[in-house]
Amino acid sequence: MSDTLFAFSLIDEDATRALAERIADILQRGDTLLLEGDIGAGKSAFARALIRARLGRMEDVPSPTFTLVQTYEDESGDIWHCDLYRLTHPDEALELGLEEAFETAICLIEWPDRLANVAPKSALQLSFEAQHTQHHVTFAGRDPWADRLRGLDA
Fold first, then answer.
1. So what's the pLDDT on residue 82?
2. Which pTM value belongs to this model?
């Protein structure tokens, strides 16, 4: 079971971008972020901002809703942005090559419930929720995430 680490209110897209930029700085190969939440909760906006921050440039970051996976080459390792909404069985995720990507890339997974028990146990869970005019995100994860994210809530 994952422990809740932080919860944030994101008043606008600038706040989402600022949080994504802070997270981008600490990620390393083998990290997986599980982005949970309903349609419109802010998952894709967060992923887009994180990828751009990680790459250090204004990159076209389309939603992988139809392609399922978009990959981006980063000097410190590839970034995989996955939208698993259309999958019906966890084996379909493995057919995409996610098992290897979990070990060698930074993976951003939208609709991680489609992975069932295939999701890495060390993944950081981000649960997004839209409420009125703002979004909320809760971070949950196992060690060493608490140490790696220290100061994020400051």
1. 93
2. 0.91
